[in-house]
Amino acid sequence: MNAINHAATALLINRKWPGVPIIPVFISVQVVEFLWVVLNIAGVEITNTEPVVRAVSDIHLTHMPYSHSVATTALIALAVWWVVSKPFNKPVWGAALSAGVISHIILDLATHVQDIAISPWNDSMKLGLGLYDIPSLALFVETLYGVWCWWVFRGTRKLLALIIVMNLATLSFYSLALNGPEQFFAGRAQLFAAFVGVHIMVALGGVGLLAHSSWRTSGSAKVSSYLLTETR
Q: Which spans of this chain does the record mark as coiled coil (predicted)?
């Protein structure tokens, strides 16, 4: 899923769990992808491309059982929940951040072709609903999701514009008829991983900048009372 829409998931988390700091939430929704970027640049995980890359369907995430497997994501989420909830005594934060970690693999399962492994020890059976086989539909669904996150968050018009513009900026990746930067990634998987890393940072930075003034540091009286009880 497009980086801006993973970033938009942080808006849902803030709406559900107001008061959790913005930076840890942003890290949680993209920690899986950060791991993917590092492992691809290091050559541990493998991405292949067609000789000519025309759209996202020509980029194949061949081997990524460490960053994107269901089991790895579950272990990361469990570790985040335990560390934040127990040693740091922040159970609400732990729930929010673990939900952020899990959200990434759920969204990727909905969009990816079958390239997500069950676990690092079972790389043969892979999951994915295959939305990227129809790139134009994938872009429409992803943009709709990002806008929905904005609507739930009740963000500003500038934030909405950012989400729409950053989705449309990747149009060439989702259209066989348009040429864009994707053509330069043919046979250059590590360059593509670096590009994704930069794209993630731009998306998180943009959402952070435009959502910061609306970021909920406290909820209703009922929610505030609940948080106070939970952290005692």
A: none
Q: Which range marks the domain in which residue 168 is found?
A: 3-230
Q: Per residue of the chain (232 residues), what is the pLDDT tens digit?
A: 899 999 999 999 999 999 999 999 999 999 999 999 999 999 999 999 999 998 888 999 999 999 999 999 999 999 999 999 999 999 999 999 999 999 999 999 999 999 999 999 887 789 999 998 888 899 999 999 999 999 999 999 999 999 999 999 999 999 888 888 889 999 999 999 999 999 999 999 999 999 998 998 865 434 434 333 444 4
The structure tokens 């989705």 sit at: 167
| Spatial separation of the C-alpha atoms in residues 169 and 60, rounded to whole Å | 21
Chain mean position to CA 190: 19
108 neighbors 33 (Cβ within 8 angstroms):
no
φ/ψ of residue 53, rounded to 5:
-100, 115
Residue in 217, 192, 162 with CA at minimum distance from that of residue 8: 162
For residue 126 the two structure tokens come to 């892979």
- Beta strands 122-127 and 116-119, pairing class: antiparallel
Overall domain count for the chain: 1
